[in-house]
Amino acid sequence: MADTSTVSSAGKRPEALAERIRAAILEHRLAPGAKLTEAQLCEVFGVKRGPVRQALALLATDRLVDLEPNRGAFVASPSLQEVHEVFEMRRIIELAVVERICAGHGTRRLKGIAGMIGRERKAFETHDFSTWIRLSGEFHTALAALTGNAVLCECLNGLVARSTLISALYESIGRSPCSCEDHEAILAALDAGHAQDAATLMARHLQSVELKMLDRPARGAVDLSEVFSK
User: Fold this and answer.
1) CA-closest candidate to residue 38, choices 193, 224, 200
2) 97-130: b or e for each residue (b if 16 or more CB lie within 10 Å)?
3) Mutual angle of helices 129-145 and 14-26, in 10-degree steps
4) pLDDT value at position 5?
5) Are 58 and 18 in contact (CB under 8 A)?
6) In the chain, what are the domains?
């Protein structure tokens, strides 16, 4: 028989609390700008303020939560300027990735990317949206890894992490899986060695993702008890 007291104790650690809040954000149960009231979180999770504050600090490090002096914690609301800057840099780097792959860097390893797209589509179809969002970002970092350029990969990994969080915050759950279709088209162009077509498709895909971030929800109150009862 499992030691329920140990499980309960582990579930109240800051890391575990942060993971529960993270899941609620990625699954769109908590909207951008939602206030994360410490007292409510303490009541919901059955813990004191210390673990809650540590959990919020962890999420702030990951840019999922904004900590505002004298106001409290809020689900992050990245600015439009940040969105534009992130995607501007992604276009620069990812078009270079496409060029290098078509020049022969990693073309023989594209089959593994196809499997990743298949898992991405399955996650969408089974409504596993947090996995879907994660895999949609990993498609891009996996392509970069094929170039063998460690510095390029490090730069893109950071940008994709930031834009994946923005995507999780602002894309509407239930939209058509256009990312899967875009990824399949990009992969087909790469596999055929059509550098210009692949670059055009990649640029169009990144622009489409960026434009989805323009619908900005307003800050508002949220019933945290209801959010975490699901």
Assistant:
1) 224
2) bbebbbeeebeeebeebeebbeebbebbeeeebb
3) 90
4) 39
5) yes
6) 4-77 (1.10.10.10), 80-214 (1.20.120.530)
CA atoms within 13 A on the CB side of 169: 29
Q: Give per-residue pLDDT as tens, 148-192.
A: 999 999 999 888 878 877 776 666 655 544 689 999 999 999 999
Cα–Cα dist 144/105, whole Å: 10
What global pTM score does this model have?
A: 0.71
Distance between CA atoms of 69 and 66, rounded to whole angstroms? 10
**Scanning the structure block, which residue is given the tokens 């993971």?**
19
Sign of CA dihedral 62, 32, 155, 20: positive
Sign of CA pseudo-dihedral 180, 185, 189, 192: positive
pLDDT band at 67 (very low <50, low <70, confident <90, very high): very high
What digits encode the pLDDT tens for the residues 102-146?
A: 988 766 688 889 999 999 999 988 988 778 878 888 999 999 999
Residues in the chain: 230
Count of CB atoms situated within 10 Å of the CB of 138: 18
